[in-house]
Write a structure and sequence with these properties.
By secondary structure, the chain is of the alpha+beta class. 37% of the residues lie in helices and 22% in strands. A 5-stranded mixed sheet has the order 2-1-7-4-5, with helices on both faces.
Length: 555
């Protein structure tokens, strides 16, 4: 039989002849060992698809391994489907809630199980049975009304509310051995591909662990993060009180015209927490400590606006803030460390002049006056700014920069005078009970909008650079989160609805023929779960204004 079509396999850089109608599983099997890895999903014309995807017309196909960011996302969501199947078996009728990433895994709660090793063991054993059985995970599509009825009959209220507020004609869902679920990522075609996992008791629930980022053959390590977890817990309690915990709840608020109240309450909570941190600093300062406040966090966490708002609150406590930026302490460009690709590594701690920085801090603590440097990014050189500062008895030095929690930044400065704050957008709402909001995606959307509007960077540039930014965060920021004296969650209940329109305009400018289109398309789909919220409702002091514009602060 003659071939009717050809696909271009990007992995092999050659055309593959097909009859038409083959699934990507069948195509990969026909290629045998030529790929050099077992794919978990693929890019088809730069859009992520599961391996059950069938090819009927010429396409460009790139098979993706588990070690890729997209492959890991597919694997993790597939594990969640297996966990849901296990819960239905060991605790029928229980509510499974998958909340957020923390401590190297996903934090989950099961209403019908008492947290502890005994329950974790039951879930682990049932998941292993499902994996060993190598069951198919089927992708289905039906009219949304039918899917709503199906989810309603199973008590999946959050999914029902979400679908009712999306108003789509048809909905894609997945079926595994009698259980059905809505998933925001394509899944692997069979459970036998999910052999690396664990589930451990954690706080009031469990931690679902997938593969280790550096070695996909072993389970990720659980690294306790009690302070970060408590920040999530604090916001979940607030969500419960205001009755907003997922995208369906947010969308209902918008549909019923109550989004203004949602904005006001969420912004008031930010003010409350910033004021509490200011009060803590003030109290410690009165006892001779907290003379230097180090404010750190990953990219697009809102550190700059937080620092300015913290300064306002300190002023109301009769403490005068003096602000400096770590960016002005970069070494000259020719002394900047290089990353693994040979590019300048501005995320490295050693891209900073640590000797000068520590000397300045200690001089200020002695009551001396220092002249601040100013980094000339165009020339790549450090220059003297002419700006001189001195710390008076009623002043606090606020230092903003990604390395604030790293002990190596201020190794020569007495610990008693430091107060460390970690700022990050720890998304506390979910899409539904089984689909969480990635804090990384939240920050990427913030950065993309800001860089496009105010820094002249295209979304292609931002997406292309993001993996390098993430590697820097994993190395230089996240290991030190638990060093914080206070953690500020800069996420807002409504922000994805506000960012949606701005971000979609930017993302639509990414052409289909570039590799960054895969991320742009995925983010557009993700934003589609949230009803638009008008930016006119956002006050000028909001942290979101750092990214959207219209802030009352000067940057």
């Amino acid at each position: 039989m003659s071939s009717t079509l050809k696909i271009y396999c990007k992995n092999l850089k050659e055309y593959i002849a097909l009859e038409g109608g083959e699934s990507l599983v069948e195509v990969a099997a026909a290629l045998g060992d030529r790929l050099g890895f077992e794919p978990v999903c693929a890019l088809v014309n730069n859009k992520v698809e599961g391996l059950v995807y069938r090819v009927f017309t010429p396409k460009q196909v790139e098979f993706l391994p588990l070690g890729s960011a997209t492959g890991k996302r597919c694997y993790t969501h597939s594990l969640c489907m297996v966990l849901y199947r296990a819960v239905e078996s060991v605790a029928p009728g229980s509510r499974l809630q998958i909340s957020h990433s923390v401590s190297g895994g996903l934090y989950v709660k099961v209403s019908g199980l008492v947290p502890g090793e005994e329950s974790a063991s039951l879930l682990r054993e049932e998941m292993r049975k499902v994996v060993d059985a190598d069951l198919p995970i089927e992708r289905k599509e039906r009219p949304t009304g039918d899917v709503i009825e199906m989810f309603a009959s199973r008590g999946l209220e959050a999914k029902v509310k979400l679908l009712r507020t999306l108003h789509e004609l048809y909905t894609i869902y997945y079926r595994l051995d009698g259980v059905v679920d809505l998933c925001i990522s394509p899944l692997v075609p069979r459970t036998g591909m999910l052999r690396v996992f664990d589930i451990q008791p954690y706080e009031e629930g469990f931690l679902l662990l997938g593969v280790d980022p550096s070695d996909t053959g072993v389970v990720a390590r659980m690294t306790p993060q009690p302070k970060v977890f408590n920040a999530f817990r604090q916001y979940r309690r607030f969500n419960h009180i205001v009755g907003i915990s997922n995208a369906g709840d947010v969308n209902e608020m918008v549909e019923t015209g109550r989004e203004g109240n949602m904005v006001n309450v969420a912004e008031a909570l930010h003010t409350k927490y910033i004021r509490e941190i200011a009060d803590s600093i003030t109290e410690r300062h009165s006892r001779g400590g907290a003379r230097i406040v180090l404010i750190a966090g990953p990219s697009s966490s809102g550190k700059t606006t937080f620092t300015k708002r913290l300064g306002v609150e300190l002023l109301t406590n009769l403490i005068r803030p003096v602000m400096i930026s770590l960016d002005d302490y970069f070494v000259d460009r020719h002394r900047t460390p290089l990353d693994e690709t040979g590019d300048y590594d501005y995320e490295s701690l050693y891209a900073l002049d640590l000797d000068l920085f520590n000397a300045h801090l200690n001089a200020l603590l002695r009551g001396e006056e220092v002249e601040l440097p100013k980094y000339n990014f165009e020339k790549g050189t450090s220059e003297w700014s002419g700006t001189k500062i001195r710390l008076e008895p009623d002043t606090v030095l606020l230092v903003e920069g990604i390395h604030g929690l790293n002990p190596g930044l201020t190794a020569a400065v007495d610990e008693e005078v430091k107060y460390r704050v970690y700022v990050s957008a720890l998304s506390s709402i979910t899409i539904d009970d089984h689909n969480w909001v990635s804090t990384t995606d939240n920050r990427l959307l913030r950065r993309m909008v800001r860089d496009y509007k105010y820094r002249g960077s295209s979304p292609i540039d931002t997406i292309a650079r993001w993996p390098s930014v993430r590697r820097g965060e994993e190395k230089w920021i996240f290991p030190y989160q638990e060093n914080a004296d206070a953690i500020f969650n800069s996420s807002l209940l409504f922000e994805l609805g506000v960012i949606r329109d701005e971000a979609e305009r930017v993302l639509r400018s990414v052409p289909r023929d570039c590799v960054e289109y895969a991320v742009a398309y995925r983010l557009r789909r993700f934003l589609g779960y949230f009803a638009p919220v008008s930016s006119r409702l956002i006050p000028p002091t909001s942290l979101l204004r750092e990214f959207l514009g219209g802030s009352s602060f000067h940057y």
